[in-house]
Design a protein that fits this description.
heterodimer, A: about 250 residues, alpha/beta, 2 domains, 5 strands, about 35% helix, B: about 425 residues, alpha+beta, Cytochrome-c3 Hydrogenase, chain B, three-stranded antiparallel beta sheet, 14 helices, globular
Chain lengths: ~250, ~425
Amino acid sequence: MSKKPRAAFFDFAGCEGCQLQVANLEEDIIKLLELVEVVEFREVMTGEAEEYDIAFVEGSITRKSDENRLKDIRERSKLVVAYGQCAVSGGINRLKNNWSSMDDVKKCVYGDDSNLAHLDTYPTRGIDEVVEVDLYIPGCPIDRDEFLRMVKELCLGKTPRLPNHPVCVECKLKENICLFDQGVICLGPLARAGCGARCPSNGSPCEACRGTVENPNKNAMHEILDKYNYTVEEIRRTINLFGVNPEVKK
Amino acid sequence: MSKDVKINVKHLTRVEGHGNIVVDVNSGKIEKVEWQVSEAPRFFETMVVGREYSELATITSRICGICSIGHTFASLKATEAALGVEISEQTRVLRELLLHGETMQSHILHVCYLVLPDLFKVGSVLPLIESHKEVVLLVTKIHRLANELCDIIGGRTTHPIRPKVGHFTMLPTRKELEGLKVRLEECLGDLKQLAETFQSVSDGFPEFSRETEYVSLTNEKEYAFYDGEVTTTDIDKVIKADEYRGVVNEFVVPQSTAKYGKFNRESFMVGALARYNNNHAQLTSLSKEVAELLGLSGINYSPYQNNAAQIVECVFAVERSINHVDWLLLQELKVEKPEIKVKNGRGVGAVEVPRGILFHDYTYNDDGICVAANCVIPTNLNHNNIQKDFEKMVPAMLDIPQEELRFNLEMLVRAYDPCISCSTHYLNVEFKK
């Protein structure tokens, strides 16, 4: 691309913590602006544009009216990037889907008012369940450095790739004591690396907020569970936290 | 006057979440003045039902990216109250310090990235990189420090990793604390400079005030953030946090996916200005000085002054953070491993987060599994007050150009620092089996 690519940021149902990670680049934002021209970013600027080269989409889809807005963004954009786990898989919002009836979900929160049209909701989706997605930047929240790297590579015309090894690899490199040895169940053997094993390095188990690797070594996971006397059910519970789709996204 | 005014701002910019401003005036007759909240509700109360007590803060932290630390603490406090878990002085000080980091981070983001562009008459902070680079660099320096404080104490700037029920999983090193102290001390000068810059352009706010009720936590010990009981400018007593339902009185309205609240008047305000109005006598020395510089006095009735109160609170947060770091440096810090016994019960946690008073209320069964939850979000509580401000402002300003009125209304909403995405999902969860 000869001119700077025109980038826009959009958000759907989520906590907006991932766009906060962009704001948290601090002085590096200035460098980012040398690479892309930000033409629309409702949370930080006034202004709109008709077309974009890259649309960064955050948040999950939870109602019909948001589908239309997302489709419109897709039509006007050359590339669509799902950034943050809510956009990638529905994220934590997908926990709502454990309820069998959306009417019960609405009643639980809004009581007798739950039938009001503007409170409508349906089971949470990642954005690729509504439109085609060109690139995924996973995580809850995203890793700022990974975001910057992937944007840089996009601008250089490269195809950015995610690490495809488990969090355990990064954890070992950091010489952390394995949490299983400390009596804590951890998703490191399945989860996709790229975060620098951030949670285990802070004494807290990996919750696979970035999803799993493409071809997880299930046998190894079973062996670990057997060795430390855990059941599959116990890890399934945690994997469920961030809406990780069994069909792993590349 | 026979004037037509049509204002329709869809998805107001430079606020967190989705809200609309609609004003319809026909021949001087006001047909409609509305602050609408159109954010998609997320139904967090249903997400936590069936989850273990140790998972609750992980989930509810995701209510809000900007105040994830405050949500974490309201959540941990509610769980600890329900299970009867006591925390150590070390854990309390670390939590207070981390909360100050978040207050600073959030207030700076709001006042400087979202509000300052209005005062410089530009669409965003981006043009200021060219025109006022020194201001932008000052802002990013303070913002970076706030974030790094959260990293050092919480393990991550957003959605903190280390704070858990009853303890922290990892502690800052002595070297990190010493480094933090040096930078916090330097930050006091930076904040003073920022306050002066803000003051030099603050004549850009419209003249507008409306007396309302101001609700916040308060405690005898200090200007309340982490702990306290509820008070308001309309009462001279305190109300226990677990009796919050009698204060917030939430209700559903047609123009909003977020609930509204009211107490002794038709509406009330929460947030930095409410805290200031209730607790300003307990501010620290430099924060008092900055309050004076920014023209804050006893009780302030202009919602635009919420911005000034946020700067004052940043100064307070840094002064108190220095005290906390000093205390931590005097201790032999140790990772604690509390024994937690699950039991059934209900607990309420109340914390002052950047946008105001926050409540989490959980009920657990015998196995420590959550069976009901209710979270009351400060932005929720402010929506009604914003609406009432609109209803006073529009008739009073019908003679100014429409564009100026629109701008004033936008600035008014921004002054509240609304966090709309976190305000749209809460109330009265009764889990029915």
